[in-house]
Amino acid sequence: MGTFVITKRLNDFYKFEFVSRKGKTIFTSAHYEIRFECEEAIEGFKVSIDSHHFLRFKTAKGKSFFKLMKDQKVFAISRKYSTELMMQKGIDEISKYASKAEILDFSSGDSIFSAVE
Q1: pTM here?
Q2: Using the 8-state DSSP alphabet, how is residue 83 labeled?
Q3: Residue-range domains of the chain with CATH
């Protein structure tokens, strides 16, 4: 099952990634000024996945990626895939698991591991 992971960028804006059950990032969201906006965007996406659509692209080097669109606005951009089949598998994983994915918040920057003594 996939997971939404909220983190904070270096410019203090928030973003989230949808990460596959194997731990690979499938897409990264646009940025949000407030963490709550990030959570709202995730929840909104989870209940209305069907209202989003995928625009597929190829880089100059032949890598495939997609932009996840909602109301003519870019909601998120995928990672670069080596083949169109791999990109389609990423899209399929979103369709299958995103609506029931959990949300993990790592935006506080606090280490979850204790300091080595």
Answers
A1: 0.86
A2: S
A3: 3-105 (2.30.29.80)
